[in-house]
């Protein structure tokens, strides 16, 4: 292999370019991790247009995680109380194929479910759609993006007629007002934040930064205005700002007349949101509300950025659409420095959307409900008319309900760790433990979800397989394999294709390599909003990363922004205003459960710790979980800094040492989402959360539930720290299988 390889960081949706080189290079000392193990050297790729050479701590340390605790061979067991035994690929795949056939003929294809991930490459996603939705004829493929991006997807489709973030990262340097809502960009999208912060600092006073978040995050620290609203009051805030913009005559009536629809219904809603009412509901002052509206009104170019504080809500789609409304009423879209920009979380959640990786989607930004879309895809896949089911498949939470009711015969989980990341975790785990047959395909062992598997399949991960990923600004990067695969690991798409062939679909899965898979997928994007027929592995290798839309005939890649012609993908070409009243939280606090629990991420850690929990530097940055409590609340409960606190919701409980801080609003508490049962004793955020979901996107309200706080006595604290020590020695003693 060549000395250095260009690729993409496999962590977050910023999608930074990386350049990696082998541990041993001529004339240089061998690069080693803190335990002396030789590791690939990682640095930012200066030529990558999205990141221009920058990386954060996660990208910089990724190589240290690649060799530790890997799942190396297929493993099987007859029941969850038995130990795993090593099996051959042949035996594992036969068992899966037999099970699929039995379930198909006894319960029907709708009893088969697959749960995938925004950490798949596009090729993995595409082959999984072809297998499940095409060949097997069930739309029961859902991805962890259901917990992540689905509200943004629904909002874009409803407002603009199609999914797809309309902005690009250059807009970060061009905006006059950055409006950040429910996003801790500084910790979760650090390289985007660096770029914005630089622009903000350079234009001190001229460029405004507003942050809307119940926590005073690192992002909020940098803002000109931090609106610490009560959780779940975003729609009140946006409607209240719209009220002021209208009162001040700061709306663009020509744009509204010529490019939008449904404005009268929106106006009817807005008149119910005068400043005094809104300020009270949001827990901010009228002056703060007016300042936010004034910054928006007075800025020539307004860019809003949002992520989980908006999406993970029982009114997530309504929140995102209400924010988009502000852009529509002021014509802040389709021009440099402006627009509604949802930040994708995972490295390839975007590619997943393009490949149809949610239970209501088909490849090429198509939807299963649309008969024309179904027949286009059936024809392209060489399948009989009517093979693709006309109704959306189960969402991941509905799969859990299906398991509870005994309606699921097989569940196949890949590249996600639901035994940590799903809401209402006790219920989720109980349902998983009732599964008659679970296949779990992951790169690492142990993980929490492996406890619920009958078959474990070792996945080749980033660095060991070649494929593409799309970042938040619609930019596609080739991730070239540069290391050997450990043990018998295989790429996800290869495993899906092999099962497809063994089921008799030889023609459909006749791919020699991932370049062929991607080339086939791009044909399904022809004429679609996410067209990428002009992109292929070879061109990406030669020309570097490219943004879609990129049709074959277009020589120059000229796709920085969508909707520059102010025509949208709706039937009438107009963007549609949404008329939503605020409904608030699905589980508001009450006298029994008086606090709102929110949760989120820390800079150095990634999700369920499968990688960052195994890297010294990131582990040291955030050694243990904690709960943030406002001094006023802590005082009332007699809680001091570092005291242990038990957090109880109607569904479950967890224990954390307290961090007493004014960074969190009174009445709200915050815990990180990262620690599952493998990494800490009883510190799971999702032990407490509930599955109530947005009716449009079916995305659960992971960001808020009602809890009570109970200080723990010294005895329990001692037991806990003993358990901690026992656990960490257990982990370090776990061998690779
Ligand atoms: N370091 C790190 N970076 C990551 C990840 C990671 O695990 N670690 N994961 C990636 C993924 S998949 C994702 S989805 C993104 C997530 O990126 P973010 O969305 O930025 O991350 P979170 O910390 O989950 O939540 C953001 C904020 O929402 C706020 N919030 C809670 N309730 C409300 C509300 O009602 N209204 C408003 N306005 N805000 C609210 C929380 O206080 C929190 O600060 O990060 C990506 N980047
Ligand atoms: N309370 C609460 N819960 C949340 C959230 C929250 O904010 N709060 N956020 C939600 C969101 S936005 C997200 S995205 C999810 C994330 O939750 P998960 O998807 O459960 O988190 P990860 O730890 O990223 O799990 C990815 C798994 O894929 C494996 N893996 C990595 N690469 C590959 C590969 O190429 N192939 C295969 N087969 N496996 C691979 C890793 O080893 C790891 O086990 O959590 C959701 N849950
Ligand atoms: S900002 Fe995201 S993509 Fe960039 S290096 Fe950090 S984790 Fe990787
Ligand atoms: Mo996410």
TrEMBL record:
Its cofactor is [4Fe-4S] cluster; Mo-bis(molybdopterin guanine dinucleotide). SMART domains: Molybdop_Fe4S4. One of its GO terms (molecular function) is metal ion binding. Residues 2-70 form the 4Fe-4S Mo/W bis-MGD-type domain. Gene3D superfamilies: 2.40.40.20, 3.40.50.740, ADC-like domains (2.20.25.90), Dimethylsulfoxide Reductase, domain 2 (3.40.228.10). Transmembrane segments: none annotated. Keywords: 4Fe-4S, Iron, Iron-sulfur, Metal-binding, Molybdenum, Nitrate assimilation, Oxidoreductase. InterPro entries: Asp_de-COase-like_dom_sf, CT_Nitrate-R-NapA-like, MoPterin_dinucl-bd_dom, Mopterin_OxRdtase, Mopterin_OxRdtase_4Fe-4S_dom, Mopterin_OxRdtase_prok_CS, Prok_molybdopt-oxidoreductase. GO terms for biological process: nitrate assimilation. This is NarB protein. It comes from Phormidium chalybeum.
